[in-house]
Give the backbone structure.
Amino acid sequence: FQYKMPRLHTKEQVMANVKRICELMIGAKAGLPGLDLIIFPEYSTQGIMYDREEMFATATTIPGPETDAFAAACVEAKCWGVFSITGERHEDHPRKNPYNTLVLISDTGEIVQKYRKILPWCPIEGWYPGDQTYVSVGPKG
């Protein structure tokens, strides 16, 4: 199953999409009970932002309402998940662009890793670059 990249404009649309992602995760686990990790593609949560105002308006924190919902879905599904937050607020928000972040959440709802994309595709992707890579323990070690 390939999740289609949405084009969203408001925080309300983003949260409705978060609900859909959570439902898909829980449904996938029900259909494939041996599944222990589900990875959603880049841009699957907020979509791609071509409008600077929308980019800042839909930016969020980690943890935040999106990751809280994803964590609850991981617990309910008893499955790990990787989720795209293309719009994690920069520490100097709104003076600096948001990060393009991937979040790894365990089946207990813990945020295990937060990776900020190091090399955004400039000039198309206006994200602020991250500065670290990680190795994490996953569902099978």
